[in-house]
Amino acid sequence: QVQLVESGGGLVQPGGSLRLSCAVSGMSFSFYHMAWYRQAPGKQRDVVATITNTGSTKYPDSVKGRFTISRDNAKNTVYLQMSSLKPEDTAVYYCNHPTGTYSWGQGTQVTVSS
């Protein structure tokens, strides 16, 4: 059974940075594409970054140039480096397959506020 455990969220001021981590277990991590999602209150869950099993990345325009997804296959972990954070980045952040195949973890709250 695949388990996804997100961590690293917190309260940060506008313009600040955070690095999120997602520890993955129960699957052959290095073979699979991964993604970070976010869900703000009252809104749908959206993808903010994807990374293929070979390390190719993709971002929506809303975060391009500010967010960077990476992976460490030796640690079965995917990361999301976020910089130049804006209040509109406030959300619960989750990792999963780009199709949302696996059971969702608890997510990690990111709050951008002064």
Shape: globular
Rg on CA atoms, Å: 13 Å
Extract low-pLDDT stretches: none
Instruction: Note the total helix count.
Output: 0
Helix content: under 10%
Q: How many E strands?
A: 10
For the terminal residues, how far apart are their CA atoms?
A: 40 Å
Major beta sheet, specifics?
A: 6 strands, mixed
Sheet/helix structural class: mainly beta
Give a verbal description of the structure:
- A hairpin with a 5-residue loop joins strand 5 (46-51) and strand 6.
- The protein is an all-beta fold and 114 residues long.
- Helices cover 0% and strands 46% of the residues.
Short key terms for the protein model shown above:
6-stranded mixed sheet, 4-stranded antiparallel sheet, mainly beta, single chain, 10 strands, 114 residues
Offer a concise description of the structure.
With 114 residues, the protein is mainly beta. It has strands at residues 3-7, 10-12, 18-25, 34-39, 46-51, 57-58, 67-72, 77-82, 91-96, 108-112. It contains no helices and ten strands.
